[in-house]
# Entry
Amino acid sequence: MDFTLKIWRQNAPKEKGAFETYKISGITPDCSFLEMLDQLNEQLVREKKNPVAFDHDCREGICGMCSLYINGRPHGPDDDITTCQLHMRKFKDGDTITIEPWRAGPFPVIKDLVVDRQAFDKILQAGGFISVNTGAAQDANTILVPRDKAEEAMDAAACIGCGACVAACKNSSAMLFVAAKVSQLALLPQGKPEATKRVKAMVAKMDELGFGGCTNTGACEAECPKNISISHIARLNREYLCAKLKD
Amino acid sequence: MKNLDARIPDGPLHEKWTRFKNTCKLVNPANKRKLDVIVVGTGLAGASAAAALGEQGYNVTVFCYQDSPRRAHSIAAQGGINASKNYPNDGDSIYRLFYDTIKGGDYRAREANVHRLAEVSGSIIDQCVAQGVPFARDYGGYLDNRSFGGAQVSRTFYARGQTGQQLLLGAYGALNRQIALGNVKMFPRREMLNVVVIDGKARGIITRNLVTGEIERYGAHAVILATGGYGNVYFLSTNAMGSNVSAAWQAHRKGAFFANPCYTQIHPTCIPVHGDYQSKLTLMSESLRNDGRIWVPKKKEDAEKLQKGQIKPADVKEEDRDYYLERRYPAFGNLVPRDVASRAAKERADAGFGVNNTGLAVYLDFADSIKRLGKHVIEERYGNLFQMYEKIVDEDGYTQGMMIYPAVHYTMGGLWVDYHLMTTIPGLFCAGEANFSDHGANRLGASALMQGLADGYFVLPYTVGDYLATEIKTPRFKTDSQEFETAHKEVKDRIDRFFSVNGNETVDSFHKKLGKIMWENVGMGRTEQTLKTALKEIPELRNEFWKNVYVPGKPDEFNQELEKAGRVADFLELGELMALDALNRRESCGGHFREESQTEEGEALRHDDQFSYVAAWEYKEGVKFELHTEPLKYEVIQVQQRNYK
# Structure
């Protein structure tokens, strides 16, 4: 298969970027999207040109490091996957593919397709945990969690922190990301003692870092590679309201 | 040869760890604030160690090469974590977990370490549940367990097929809490490129800021490496693309011994290789072997038709299928340890019974389980794995079965550590997959997560404290000393050298060539001849690398080719040591299979009279290595030929 690639190139955070066009040929349908980019980079390095910088690591859809806005969609045209799991069989021979970094104020571009997502770490540092010191825990089976709650908590906990929800949202809202953690911990008895403090601190940090408001368009859920439901945003809103009412 | 003292406490095996905890030196809270600890790596071992040490009040500085600590490759572990809780009442105990781990490791692990691991395993589950890790539960709300390879009890706790992710996010949460409290400082997108040794003790590290390219210096009273395994020396493995040996290798070059490098684990259930542009291999969790049955056709003509795509697996009648693991190992069946399952798959493929177009695949079939339990149960247990399979292979695993083949997955070898998890450089500790300690020659499934968290949460907080108690009068380290200058210069010189070569070959092309040499000669089956071939070809390739590699761009910018160049340069030295170690060990044990040393039935044959030792290698100038040995003494376990029949 042959493709024309329009790729965002930007040398440094403050420098101006632009699209550049590349041709690549001889790609097989079994090849993954990132392996296609590997081949482009191999080609560029052989021509003694600078390769395209992009984030990636596990290449099995779980570390959350890969990103890429492909033909206007975070993680590209397939559903329920990350970019590293996208395969070229999802494109047609001869297609032109446009590749951009995540576009969101709180995720500034570092180089080419690489963005800085430390804002997500900062939100979780504001309260996305249970305060338990190592060694303090009682026997695991003394905390009973109803199976349906455990399953729902797991659904939320599946978030990989990739940022597709923010990239998909017209307001660059991080509500789905924040909701996933708040919801996971609110569903579990272990998370209850800090629930009020947690939800307020995390929402305040999200606002402080410049993420936009949620207007319930549902784009985040549609693009989430882990299929995290916006019903968790509803739970976040409930938790937040209850917490605020107690103020 | 140096005398390697593992500093194992006295007393009966089951009292050693308690005695250590009762008698180790402690640091009072006011002094802890004055002591600095560096942790490199944020996987299960690194994140848990950093969090636990931060909780105790030490000043902790943490580094990772990814953009966030949450990305470390522990996140990709799927199946579960072992603990001897005996919740299912099926006969498990600390002793049995200890026994299974020693046996699974083919009697090449240290008894005292493994017993300690089994002792703390239960506390790990308690800790993780308290952190909010959403483990699978039964309808009564109690924790659920499943079985795993190499054990006859169900002691594996799991969170769907994402156990590593959930445990890592738990440890990452604990780490975030300490960052928020100011006890831990986190430096992502940093790669450790040197260790600073002052008066014989590890006192700091040199890192490269991967965003700006700046070379940075950090001092500390102790340094912990939790930097993972070296499976990427094979180029294709289940490791993350960035997983590398460089931190451990730089420590090795500075005097830390490297133990048992030839012990590599080839995981039996991975998606087969499909093309030469392929960048990595994807694991399908071993837990699938609970409900999947592994087979190839009995008749060669069926295998040939399957290879040519003329028939589908469903066309092969039940009586024409060879469930070779059930046939060869009736007691453990599909749940034999990984090394045994991998070799059995290779044996069938080599004999011409492989099933995909390359002939290098076997079937993992779920038809029986689906019939017995219903598709929804299988979907609930492994849904994400079937989805992953479908996305990669474009086939439905429920109806077609999965095609699988062994792939490099884990490395049991690593930096030599004593009972305190300290390397041969005082003050330099090593935890998790990066050390060699607990798995002998083969790791059992669901034991890597257990070891990483045991080291980080429950071992290092005691042993690092014991070391730091002797350092309370040592002031903070200034990073302008001669030793820091020298270490900094070494890093800078090496980076400059990459650019000055200015050759014509890409870094990846060297990595692929090295991977091919390793897989063909130091892979699943090794002979004296293949190892000698590797020992000839690797140094040649290394010379070629330093003459003809091309690294684009500049040193002081975001430069992923430069990052790769450093890692491949280190792999080009490690690969040679692996071959040397494999050549030295003229026996088969666990993941190390010397074809000259096998039983009549083709099983691994150990030579305990000659090789019941840990091989710990010292680095010498000019990529030379000197062997030291730590004899393994078994006081409690009776050493036997492993038998899973």
